[in-house]
Amino acid sequence: MRLLVISAVLAMTAACAWQPPPQAAAPQPVPPAPPPPAMAGPVPLMPAPAPVAMASPPPAPVMVAPPTVAPPSVAPVTVEASPPAPPPPQPGLLSDVPVAYLSSLTLPAIRLLHELPRLTLSNYDYDTVRVQVVVTPFPDCEFRPGITPAEFILPLNATRILQAPAGADICWRREVVSATQPDMPAHGVGWGLWNRAYMSNGHSVDASL
Fold this sequence. Notes:
Number of helices: 2
Shape: rod-shaped
Largest sheet: 5 strands, antiparallel
């Protein structure tokens, strides 16, 4: 009995003892690659399809410039500028005076001017002559205060009309030029004698140098 128990204990002790690790498994051999499949018979080559002709694009339209037509020649037209319009009348002092009243004032003045005695002095003998005149109510032709002589040039065949106020006469004389100086100087040699037109009586006089 005792032997059986010891045998059992030993058996159990042996079972629990360390077992060596199993050896590594040997590497498995790599199976060889399968042989390539047997080639079938030669495959007939199909001819390549013929290239498809591509339609060429239509040509681009050509821009043609329209023909140049010269404009018809036009004769120049001359435009004459019209004269400028006269300026509008400016209002004056007499713009508001009635016409009838103005005529009553101007007609007597025109009649009086027409009735004033006149001296018509003509030059038929000298090429050019300087004339001096004096309007005076005195009996002589001398210069006096308030009386101013007037001078003018009278060409050949020319006439000068002078008017004198009522009650006055006109005296005139010509400039005397030396024979050695035929041209008219600024101031000649001197003046000739006075001539007097008696016009204080209201009569007009025609005279020549």
